[in-house]
Specification:
The longest helix has 24 residues. With about 500 residues, the protein is α/β, with parallel strands linked by helices. The protein has three domains: about 280 residues, 3-Layer(aba) Sandwich (Rossmann fold), CATH 3.40.50; about 160 residues, Isoleucyl-tRNA Synthetase, Domain 1 (Orthogonal Bundle); about 55 residues, no CATH class. The strands form five sheets. Strands 3, 4, 5, 11 and 12 form a five-stranded mixed sheet that branches. A five-stranded antiparallel sheet has the order 6-7-8-10-9. It is globular, with a radius of gyration of 26 Å. It has 15 helices and 17 strands. Bound molecules: zinc ion. The site of zinc ion (ZN) has 3 residues, from loops.
Length: about 500
């Protein structure tokens, strides 16, 4: 058995690819304490959001494949995320409130209903794209008490101050501000201030430093408000992650992840708050996922290249009915830190790869009952290919190389094909399970019943009946009838393949 490779990731804090060494152990086994920023539940999550959640999922899977213990926390932001979040102290409207007031928001009874709906959708998309469940999925609104306590502590230890509009973190009180992003110095702050002014955003003139950011906003008219020592209001966005990470993972966590847009100001502010509260380093490693482009352009609603996960995987006509595992495969086909161009061509290629994995799984499952002596050559070659895939993942999540190793294995198994016997099929099954645990692209892990395939397809009976009729027609050399049936199947979105064992069918890729 070869020894495990070393998991290495690019650390935004040090700008180096570094070996990840969890600080704690559980009975000699490394224990990774890991926090990843989740979405703001004001709308359907888009594929760019999910690419970042998938990076966290792949880190988790790789750590687990190495045999580590993991505690994985990813939050749901359901309050406090304002529209101008690219500024250190965002202003503008709360994204949740804005969503409620939009056309799509009309169907919700109130803001709590909206938050609940989009959280439920998120969880379904999460399952569909085969992401592993976190150990804890805390919601900002369920941790208001802890956030208020943290703000009180920051006021007490001189890192925060009060104005008539809110409580602010004093950036000048934390000399390390800017250590993650390299930003947050005066020039950036002035730039941010100027941007705010040109957008006619109301800023608080009582702020001591333009870099200071809100910990608590006083607002007794906000749709989500809580009573605090400073009256009615709601927490700033950044404080939730500092507080919830500490609550579930301790004062110093191993790894913190998120999209590259979160480096500044969100993660910079999380560090300032958390380290000012504890006096200890907040996170030892920081991993950030690069934004994706769609068909070579920035994804935007106005360009018509904006895709939510729902747009792709929901059955027609609501969505495009694309296999969720194909979407997963496409989104992980580029390394998380490199520029990534999501195209329908690579989605098609991903769908073919997932289809091949599914077909080889069926081949292996069918061969498991064959009672014949094992093939000696197959096991070591599959072992080597899995080791190659794991080593690629440990190399800063080199997903393209990992996927290439997996496809090599598929080719190998297809080459053996019908000669696969019981012993080698069992080994192949183990290999497919290992590959699925590492990359999640072979089969759904969460709820197989919610992912229909041809075996439990609602059309299955109808299709089988038509195929039987077509076989009869062909036997009777009634080709006009057999062609008509093929057209009928085609209209149902079914592709027929004539093989030596008779006609087989599958759903056509709807892309
Ligand atoms: Zn966060």
């Amino acid at each position: 058995m070869p020894s495990n490779p070393v998991l290495q990731l690019y650390n935004t804090l040090t700008k180096l690819v570094e070996p990840i060494t969890p600080a704690a152990f559980i009975q000699d086994t490394p224990h990774l304490r890991f926090y990843s920023c989740g979405p703001t539940v004001y709308s359907y999550a888009h594929i760019g959001n999910f690419r970042s959640f998938l990076t966290a999922d792949l880190i988790l899977r790789t750590a687990q494949a190495l045999g580590w213990k993991t505690t994985y926390v990813t939050n749901v932001t359901d309050v406090g995320h304002l529209t101008e979040d690219d500024l250190t102290d965002p202003s503008g409207e709360d994204r949740m409130v804005k969503a409620l007031q939009s056309k799509e928001g009309e169907r919700f009874a109130n803001i709590w209903d909206l938050a609940r709906y989009y959280t439920e959708v998120l969880l379904r998309d999460w399952d569909s794209l085969n992401l592993r469940e976190p150990d804890v999925r805390p919601r900002a609104t369920e941790h208001i008490r802890q956030q208020i306590e943290a703000v009180e502590q920051l006021l007490a230890n001189g890192h925060a101050y009060e104005t008539s509009q809110g409580i602010y973190f004093s950036v000048a009180s934390f000399p390390d501000y800017g250590k993650l992003s390299g930003r947050g110095h005066d020039a950036d702050a002035l730039e941010a201030g100027a941007a705010a002014a040109t957008r006619e955003v109301v800023t608080d003139s009582e702020k001591r430093d333009p870099r200071d950011f809100a910990l608590w906003k006083k607002d007794d008219a906000h749709l989500m408000q809580w009573y605090s020592p400073w009256g009615w209001g709601f927490p700033g966005w950044h404080i939730e992650c500092s507080v919830m990470a500490k609550a579930y993972l301790g004062e110093t966590i191993d790894l913190h992840a998120g999209g590259e847009d979160l480096i500044f100001p969100h993660h910079e502010c999380e560090i300032a708050q958390a380290e000012s509260l504890t006096g200890k380093p907040f996170a030892r490693y920081w991993a950030h996922t690069r934004f994706l482009q769609v068909e070579g352009e920035k994804m935007s609603k106005s360009k018509g290249n904006f895709y939510t996960v729902r747009d792709l995987i929901a059955p027609e006509p609501e969505g495009r009915g694309i296999d969720p595992l194909a979407v997963r495969m496409a989104l992980i086909s580029g390394q998380y830190r490199k520029p990534f161009n999501f195209t329908f061509d690579n989605l098609k290629a991903a769908a073919r790869h997932v289809q091949r994995l599914r077909e080889v799984s069926a081949l292996v499952a069918a061969a498991i009952e064959h009672d014949a002596p094992g093939d000696a050559f197959l096991a070591p070659r599959l072992d080597a290919l899995y080791a190659k895939a794991l080593a690629a993942m440990c190399d800063d999540l080199n997903t393209p190389d990992a996927i290439a190793a997996v496809l090599e294995g598929v080719k190998l198994l297809n080459g053996v094909g019908a000669n696969l016997n019981g012993a080698s099929a069992r080994r192949a099954q183990t290999w497919l399970d290992q590959v699925n645990a590492l990359l999640g692209v072979v089969a759904p892990e969460q709820s197989p019943s919610s992912h229909p395939d041809t075996t439990d397809d609602p059309f299955a009976e109808q299709v089988e009946a038509l195929l039987a009729e077509r076989a009869e027609a062909r036997k009777a050399k009634d080709f006009a009838r057999s062609d008509a049936i093929r057209d009928e199947l085609d209209a149902l979105g079914i592709e027929v393949m004539d093989t030596a064992e008779g006609a087989k069918w599958r759903r056509k890729l709807s892309i």
